[in-house]
Amino acid sequence: MRALVQTGFGGPEVVTPRQVPDPEPGPGDVVVRVRTCALNRLDILQRRGPAVLPGFRLPHIAGMDVAGHVAAVGDRVRGHAPGDRVVIDPTLGCGDCPSCRAGRPGHCPALRVVGGNVAGGFAEYVAVPARVVHRVPGHVGLADAAALPSAWSTAWRATFGVGEVSAGDVVVVQAAASAVSIAALQLAKRAGAHVVAVAGSDAKLTLAADLGADVTVRNDADVAAAVRRFTDGRGADVALDHVGAATWRASIDCLRTGGRLVMFGNTGGDQVTFSLSEIYHRGLRLLGSGAYTEADFAAMLDAFFAGGLRVPLAAEYDLTDLPAAFAAAESRATVGKVLVRP
User: Fold this and answer.
1) Which of 32, 92, 144, 333 is the most exposed place for a label (fewest CB within 10 A)?
2) What is the model's pLDDT at position 273?
3) CB neighbours of 25 closer than 8 A, spacing ≥ 6?
């Protein structure tokens, strides 16, 4: 089969199309014919080096978020058949440790991630355990399905599993035009919350407003002041922040007494300082989102498949157009998922 194979660390030149053997299904595996695979930040970070995930080895086939058709199944697999339209949960635990038995494979000591430290979807075929393969209904496009796994599951975990967003909450969403924030914004709105979207350009704020944000604020403005105006001085119930250091102060400042800051990324810096007395006097809750669970993934799919939610797609590329695909994914101006079609 044809695949994009990473043989070193650096720019797009370290990933080239090659012919590699087709994967064979084990007894409990499903082989998926990849129709589309979304580029993720992890793909870029691990291409640049050093590797982020333990167990990463070169040569490597990246691509975490895969949708396609079942091509073959192992002899123990039930419930999947060739031709089924499917999407893959990329988080693979060992299946037997306490975390895996509790439905939390993301905390497995032997964590494997499709496209992260095992072969992924930048190829014509990928083999995965049947337990992580989910049916895609006919009314949902496979391109949309491929944009869901990492971003939308992470957003679901942060918004509901940890942030406990509910009807009437005021929720601040940082970097509102990123893939994970686009998901969080819409999920919060569907729950009945009021959303303040923060982003770095007018185009990104226009998208956030189109997706349902009640208020939009540029990140170079006084975000806390805008939130206070919207809430008559009270402040937000929840801030969803995967940026980190660059937005930390604004997220803290916009919260009401007893508000919740949900942290699920550090793309804008990892180290912050804060006043302990401020946190405990204001009764703030600082919450790390952690890895999504199997239940989060299933609930996210059910919500999206029910309709009314959108996945903006920036562009689609063939495997041979990899440099252009990486350039689009790495551009801060890009809004929406970048897809690769084998």
Assistant:
1) 333
2) 94
3) 31, 72, 73, 74, 77, 127
